[in-house]
Amino acid sequence: MEFLGYFSALIIGLVMGLIGGGGSILSVPIFVYVFGFDAVTATALSLFVVGITSLVGSVGFIRQKQIDFKTAFTFGIPSILGVLFSRRLILPHLPHYIINRWGITLTKDMFLLLLFAILMLIASYKMIRKNERPRLQTFEDTNYTILISQGLLVGIITGLIGAGGGFLIVPALVMLLGVHMKKAVATSLFIISMNSILGFISTMEMVSHDWGFLLGFTGLSVLGIFAGIAVSKKMDGRKLKPLFGWIVLGMGLFIIIKEIFLKQQF
Asked: Which of 9, 58, 55 is nearest to 220 (CA)?
């Protein structure tokens, strides 16, 4: 099982390099169900892996001049505020039992995993459906309220469940700004790196880490993103999104079934 977990690290990087996100959608379930971490620790580890992997991937895109830094910081600063809000104010104050009455037991870990699963279902829908045509907008005529609120939402999600939010960032850049897909992927990775690394640093003292394991897993993920970026030069990531979307859908349903139905047996 652990071999499968380490192999998935390569897949995490590969997916991020191809479609500009999706790494945490794989990493959190792997940390919980393969390596046995609790949900809070898994989200923290995911933030580190996704943050470092996307940062390394961003370096290559910086050299290619593919990152729109003006858009990245306009979207990214509200995201950072959202991350801090989630990791410092919401997550530490969630009670161990969210619901424990009427015969219903919902723990903090179950709540975070179910929230993550719901987000996976939303992400899978966005990936499976046919791409809409981007709006022909420029940065100057963009609705800043929508862009900033989207950034804040992504930050809150990133902080709560360790998801970088690439599946939300890329469509926002393409649809709100009319950014070309490859440039949206590059800019998304840069935003994800800021959000995820800050999210990990903000709560790293709250969970224990095996740095040897974490750095080894992250190293494999970095190798994967190099492969993903290389493949993306020859293949349109949008063609792979529907396939990945079906995988995400299956994993989301698995988490819901595991947390709601199978746990009742123990």
From this structure: 9
* Euclidean distance between CA atoms 100 and 258, whole angstroms: 19
pLDDT tens, 29-59?
Answer: 888 888 888 877 887 888 888 888 888 878 8
Nearest-5° angle of CA 218, CA 223, CA 226?
A: 125
**Residue 104 φ/ψ, nearest 5 degrees:** -110, 130
CA dihedral of 234, 7, 218, 242, whole degrees rounded to 10 = 40
Contact 154, 82 (CB under 8 A): yes
What is the dihedral angle through the alpha carbons of 242, 21, 187, 209, rounded to the nearest 10 degrees?
180
Entry pTM: 0.73
- Mean pLDDT value of segment 154-165: 73
**In the chain, what are the domain boundaries?**
2-265
